[in-house]
Write a structure and sequence with these properties.
202 residues, alpha/beta, Spore Coat Polysaccharide Biosynthesis Protein SpsA, Chain A, 21% strand, globular, disordered C terminus, GTP binding, transferase, magnesium
């Protein structure tokens, strides 16, 4: 199997700019799981994959800075959703493709990220999204930076769903098992606890 050292460079965007509603308004990326902030788990997983590691964050920038090569934030301060972070990441990316990951999936592994990058090479002009069963995961994706204009046009026309944009652009799917534990979305204190995490927050 192709290793990540054989793949072309990509920029990586870690999404940590949300309101944290399911976490009681706390900054999700800084909530601890297994003794470290969630963002630290994704940083450790991705650091060796790119020289352009971007974090989308809208608060606590000084705490996120050690985990990134660059920080981006939404244009507005009202937490307009993940598409805003993706737009900012695409605009800042230094490589031809942007691998996007949310901060609350700390059980991802390098094999899955390598598989995503390898699959995206089959149609390098199209977005790629993970899918498990019939469910798309639009925040686990690879987007060609050349599609920035299409994302901007969709945003200006009122679209706020990155999944709808990518499907409209002919997105590829990388199929995962329906119950793939690597895709566990630990976005509530209860889920963090169930997955043997610590739900305390700075």
């Amino acid at each position: 199997m192709t290793s990540h050292t054989d793949l072309p460079p990509c920029s990586i965007l870690l999404l940590a700019g949300g309101r944290g509603q399911r976490m009681g308004g706390r900054d999700k990326g800084l909530i601890e799981w297994q003794g470290q902030p969630l963002i630290a788990h994704l940083h450790r997983l991705t650091r060796d994959l790119s020289d352009d590691l971007i974090i989308s964050c809208n608060r606590n920038r000084e705490q996120y800075a050690p985990y990134a090569d660059q920080l981006v934030q939404d244009e507005s301060t009202d937490f307009p959703g993940p598409l805003a972070g993706i737009r900012a990441g695409l605009a800042a990316a230094r490589h031809s493709h942007l691998l996007v990951l949310p901060c609350d999936v700390p059980r991802l592994d390098s094999q899955l990220l390598d598989a995503m990058r390898q699959a995206s090479r089959q149609h390098p002009d199209k977005p790629l999204m993970l899918r498990h069963g019939e469910h798309w995961e639009p925040l686990l994706c690879i987007i060609p930076r050349a599609l920035l204009g299409a994302f901007e046009d969709a945003w200006q026309n009122g679209e706020r769903s990155p999944g709808r944009i990518m499907r409209g652009l002919g997105a590829q799917a990388l199929q995962c098992p329906a119950d793939d534990p690597r895709l566990a979305n630990l976005n509530t204190p209860e889920l963090l606890s169930q997955h043997h995490g610590v739900s305390e927050c700075p």
